[in-house]
Amino acid sequence: MSEFQFVYPTPTEVLEQHPLHPHLNVFRPAHKQHSALVGITALEEGSVGTVLCDGQVVCYATLHPPDRYQRFGEATVEGILELGAVESAPEFRAQRLARRLLDVMMPPESFQENIIIATLYHWHYDLENTGLSTYAYRRLLEKLYSRVGFVVMKTDDPEIISYPGNALMVRMGSEVREELQAEFERLRFLRSTRGLDLSR
Ligand SMILES: CC(C)(COP(=O)(O)OP(=O)(O)OC[C@H]1O[C@@H](n2cnc3c(N)ncnc32)[C@H](O)[C@@H]1OP(=O)(O)O)[C@@H](O)C(=O)NCCC(=O)NCCS
To answer: What residue stretch is flagged as signal peptide (predicted)?
Structure first.
């Protein structure tokens, strides 16, 4: 039987030597996603967890600062990270690879000074391969992420609240500085703090 190797953080050169399984294509074609992952390993605050099997990556998860074009990327205080893509090749699903990889990446004592967000967008859900409904899929992800300390939090981000199958999940470290916490709260309810909704 093939052996699985859980690697975190995956060094750039290890990732360069291991192509992605060709069916890791939910977010973009596997070769393009591979380049994107290599790019993340080169970021100061970026890291990638991988499950290697027979010379290929069969499951991965990314951690990086939120993209600048999304609201949490506007933060003026450092320390917010995003659990970005998590993906297992369809042939390797339901073998606890994603679950075990997240355990390796985020043991309870890790990232205590950080706020890690995970945005659940229904347009990323692979309903076709899993056969799950949107809500069952959201529950699957909530359970998967809650095992490593994430909780669902409210926000007024239109991208999230536009559809009930979406959600914001947050892993709040126990040593998060007050100014980071305040900045996070400001961004979580940006429409209210900017006064956009209050007078209407
Ligand atoms: C979500 C995803 C990463 C899970 O990967 P995985 O390696 O199959 O996950 P695991 O085997 O660790 O299973 C995690 C949980 O999901 C459950 N699960 C996995 N596939 C399932 C399915 N088809 N139906 C029902 N439950 C399922 C498992 O039973 C497990 O729950 P448990 O801990 O209660 O036993 C995978 O389905 C995937 O790549 N999906 C496409 C990309 C995506 O949606 N990523 C998440 C958003 S970025």
So the answer is: none
**Residue 14 Cα distances to 83, 132, 167, angstroms:** 21, 34, 33
pTM, entire model: 0.94
Please give the number of the atom of ligand 1 that sits closest to the Cα of 97. 7
pLDDT digit string, tens, across residues 15-65 = 999 999 999 999 999 999 999 999 999 999 999 999 999 999 999 999 999
Superfamily for 5-193? Answer: Gcn5-related N-acetyltransferase (GNAT) (3.40.630.30)
Which of 39-58 are b and which e, b meaning 16 or more Cβ less than 10 Å from the residue's Cβ? Answer: ebbeeeebbbbbbbbeebbb
A 10 A CB-CB count for 135 gives 11
Nearest protein CA to atom 44 of ligand 1, as residue: 125
Mutate to test the pocket of ligand 1, among 93, 119, 168 (most ligand atoms within 8 A of CB): 93
Q: Which residues line ligand 1 (CB under 6 A)?
A: 26, 59, 85-88, 93-99, 124-126, 130, 132, 140-141, 143-144
The C-alpha atoms of residue 128 and residue 142 are separated, in whole angstroms, by 19
Domain boundaries, the chain: 5-193
